[in-house]
Design goal:
Elements: E1 2-8, H1 14-28, E2 35-41, H2 53-61, H3 76-81, E3 84-87, H4 90-100, E4 108-110, H5 124-127, H6 130-151
Parallel strand pairs: 1-2, 1-3, 3-4
Helix pairs in contact: 1-6
Domain Phosphotyrosine protein phosphatase I: 2-147
GO molecular function, one term: protein tyrosine phosphatase activity
Keywords: Hydrolase, Protein phosphatase
Length: 154
Amino acid sequence: MIKVLFICHGNICRSTMAQYVMQYLVDKRGLSDCFYIDSAATSREEIGNGVHHGTRAKLREVGIPCGDHRARQMTRGDYEEYDYLIGMDTWNIRNMNRIVGADPDHKIHKLLEYTNRGGDIADPWYTGNFDETYRDVSEGCEGLLAHILKEDMD
């Protein structure tokens, strides 16, 4: 089973969006039994809070089911538990490395590394632009899934 953890600052916007987009892509391909997908935060600011209403609305608009995830903080133990720890921006990566101490197995990556353009995914908490975030998350999840299917499931 491939275990993927998506991480952002608060775990209510970008990482939860990626969690549900990736789950949808996996389900659509009949691979649900092969994946475990979750999300977490680098901060403690939103712990226990549900998915942001903007993320819920965007996922509803595009027909992707959104569950009842509650924000939690990433732990050092997540590094051992998951095969992929996927951050949304450079600050997330810095904080993820601080939490885990080191990345000897090269499990920590930015989501847009799996696209042709790289870069950071803007936080809609600040921008209010859930359409742009969805576009980036969707493209990143498609690329990540293609990478996993090629590298880990051949």
